[in-house]
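Q: Got a minute? One more chain.
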Amino acid sequence: MGKHEEFFKKVPMNGRKGCLRFMTEMDGNFLNWESMSIRYGLVDEEGVIPEETDKLHVHDYDEAIMFLSQDAGDMLTLGGELEVTLGTDGVRHRIDLPSIVSIPAGTPHFSPKVRKVDRPFLYFSVAFNKEFKAEVTDEKAVQGEGPWIQFRAPYFDKVNVLNFAIRDPYHYASDVPEDSGGIGTLVDTHVAGFPMMCGWQTVGKPHNMGPRRDDGKRHPHAHEDFDEMLAFFSLDPDNLTDLHGEFEFSLGAEGDEERYVCSEAAVFPMRKGYFHLPLVFTKVDKPFVFFTLSRNMA
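A: Always. Here it is, folded:
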């Protein structure tokens, strides 16, 4: 076992769960940290996306849910339609484009309900807590009976369509960004409404990532003020584990670093102050996903 292996977690992808063909659920116990828990899966049929409960409920932590295209050649359309209900009055939001739903702590809501699937799409949920938990607020409330959201009404700003940059160089930790050959989006505190920074990027070709010194050599860095998760997921609708590519990721301070080579879905939960990078995408047979997630206020 390597010195830094506790920060390298292969993703345990489970089979069918509700309307998801594949789903993973990684809480703080699995990730070995306090900052967040995540769910990730592929939606391929109608129904309620399985979470803690299908009743109206609240969390005592912030939650963000993203819905994204699974098709690397068409990341600007979702491929389906779903409904998200927020508030005690059951205000409904219709979603048919790649979007983020921000659910501040204490906000009543139902689990997302998928109304239509033209092609499979991705579901990603982050709970800013060590575990997933919920408190049911109304056992009798029925999803789908409330009013549709109106312009500038309460909760109007909690659902936002994601903006993408096509073939834009990914700027993560680099003064000299390289073209990833993909498409990306960025969610910050302004969009989410609570402290959060999430960069989501498809990887379309080999490239390097990480800060450089004046001599051009890439080196590790650390974040002193926040934890950060770096994750790598497949876009293969038949196998969300196989990246169809390979990357090399370094953990540890310079002189003490270890390089991890991976071709499967994996996450790296970086505690604040822990050195990581450089990152090198060495092989890309099919596009896959790289994203970063933190409570950074920037």
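A: The chain has two domains: 13-135+144-161, 164-294.
Q: Perfect, thanks.
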